[in-house]
Task: inverse folding
């Protein structure tokens, strides 16, 4: 089924929101990679970041299917 322009806009807005969330947690990811945040403390952030990336991929796949 073809997406409407409004649905495409909503998907794009969702993708942008998830990218903003990833950007907001980049600092913690960097600190973890430098050994300043232990794995136990970073685990929940890491899982959440992965869920956001997974959702971005799903939404981008929806847009690709629409083309």
Result:
């Amino acid at each position: 089924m073809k997406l409407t322009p409004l649905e495409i806009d909503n998907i794009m807005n969702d993708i942008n929101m998830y990218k903003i969330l990833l950007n907001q947690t980049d600092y913690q990811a960097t600190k973890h990679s430098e050994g300043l945040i232990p794995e136990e403390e970073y685990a929940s952030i890491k899982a959440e970041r992965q869920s956001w990336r997974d959702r971005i991929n799903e939404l981008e796949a929806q847009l690709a299917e629409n083309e």
Summary: The longest helix spans residues 5-33. The mean pLDDT is 97.
